[in-house]
Structures are given as C-alpha cells and as structure tokens.
Design brief:
- The structure is a single chain.
- This protein has three helices and twelve strands; from the N terminus they run βββαβββββββββαα.
- It is mainly beta.
- It folds into two domains: 50 residues, no CATH class; 169 residues, Immunoglobulin-like.
- Strands 4-3-6-10-9 form a five-stranded antiparallel beta sheet. Strands 5-12-11-7-8 form a five-stranded mixed beta sheet, with no helix packed on it. The protein has a two-stranded antiparallel ribbon with strand order 1-2.
- The longest helix has 8 residues.
- The protein binds calcium ion (2 copies).
Length: 241
C-alpha cells in the first residue's frame, strides 16, 4: 500500500464510522469510534514504520586530552588508524545511523583483541551520547606496539530492535612516536614533526603533539626519539569484525 520510506504511513478502515463509506479520513489518529452504529470499531493498520532497516556504523572517533588549553579533543578515525601520541587509546566514540536502544549499558558488548596481546579486558563502561552515539571508556590505555580489533557486539541494536548490519568493528594500532603511520617509529617521524611545530593544535595536526601538551614543539621531538626502533604488527581481520 506504500513504498518503504522514512515516513510513517497509516491506513484506516471501518465498517461504518460516521465518516463516510468508504471511510474519508485524513487525520493522523483514528477517527472516533461510533459504537452506536454497528458496534464494529475502526481499525488502524500501520503499514510502514520508521527505522525499518538494520542500522550501520557511520563513524568512529577518539578522544585525547591535549593540555589544559586545548582540553579533550575528539577527532574522527578510520579503520587501520595508528595512534602515535603517548596518551594512547583509552576513549572512543562510535556512532550509528539511527537512534539506538540506549538502555543497553553492559560494557561487555565491546570486545577488544590484540594481534600480539590477545583478548583485552572489557571496557570499564559504555555510555550513550544522544541516541545514536556510544562512548567507550576503556579501563586502561591499550598497550603500545600492537594492533587491536574493537568489535561492537550483536546485542547492540536500534531503538526499533534491529541489530547492526555491515561492519561491526575497527582495527586500531598503538605505536608511540609513529606520526608517519607506517608502523615503524624512527628518525623519519621526528623529521615529520618539525614542519608542524608552533601550529595551533586541532584535529588536522593533533598527532604531532606527541606528548599531548597542547603545543607542538621540541618536546615532541624528544618524546618521539625515545620510541625510535619500535614497531607494530599489521591489523588482522578477525571473524565478526
Ligand atoms: Ca613512522
Ligand atoms: Ca607537545
């Protein structure tokens, strides 16, 4: 009776509602029931509803504190993101394309598995930011020099009750100092910081503020130097990812 859209459509029917026969009714609620006529109530059928499809993940972000001046900075991240700052990865946000069931607060729905370090403890907590984003608070920073697959469990569903469709995870690498993001921390990374010294810190250059001071300066070069020689493994596409 109607095509699938984001709009809610309804159809009304009755035997004799006092609103014409056939029913002539354009309201958004059922017409008054005229039980005095024939005792048969009106019928309302919702043919198509909102959010009638499985939700997908629309994006991931990471939060890092950059000193008192900048404070907590949320920046978008992509799959195979490499985190070079000393603060590492401890707070993430994942957003969905439609309102979600925000009564779910069990942090065990998030699983984290490292290539070298194996399964990690469940996050300390998850909290909903509005109806369509979940903030993931890890109990501790993910250990450096590894790649982790973070997966959103099938328990996470839309407010309409649909489970996630499509990719349910992201792979992130922790490698302090690796601003060039080639999974090797070395002198090239120190050289890469230099052109950004003095720049105001925002999402376009926050990775170069390796020590998370809120400034990109010589201290970040010194910070990068102590990690030279470290490396991290490639991401592995685990089942369920
Ligand atoms: Ca590098
Ligand atoms: Ca700095």
């Amino acid at each position: 009776m109607c095509s699938t859209t984001d709009e809610k459509r309804s159809a009304y029917a009755c035997s004799d509602s006092g609103n014409g026969d056939p029913l002539d009714w354009s309201g958004s609620s059922s017409p008054t029931v005229f039980t005095t006529n024939n005792k048969v109530p009106n019928v309302r059928l919702t043919i198509c509803g909102n959010s009638n499809s499985a939700p997908t993940i629309t994006g991931w972000e990471i939060a890092v504190m950059h000193g008192s001046d900048i404070g907590e900075l949320w920046c978008p991240i992509e799959n195979e993101y490499i985190e070079p700052r000393v603060s590492g990865i401890s707070k993430l946000r994942v957003c969905f394309e439609e309102p979600m069931n925000t009564s779910l607060t069990n942090a065990n729905v998030i699983s984290i598995k490292g290539v070298n370090n194996g399964l990690q403890p469940a996050p300390c907590s998850i909290e909903w930011d509005g109806s369509d984003c979940m903030v993931i608070n890890l109990c501790s920073v993910l250990p450096d020099q590894d790649s982790y697959t973070i997966t959103v469990g099938t328990e996470v569903e839309s407010s309409a009750g649909y489970i996630l469709e499509g990719g349910r995870g992201i792979c992130l690498t922790t490698l302090k100092g690796d601003v060039s993001r080639n999974r090797e921390a070395n002198a090239q990374d120190m050289l890469a910081i230099i052109p950004h010294t003095g720049e105001p810190v925002d999402c376009s250059n926050a990775l170069y503020d390796i020590n998370c001071s809120g400034k990109i300066d010589a201290q970040d070069l010194l910070a990068a130097r102590q990690y030279a020689g470290n490396e991290a493994p490639e991401c592995i596409n685990y089942t369920g990812y």
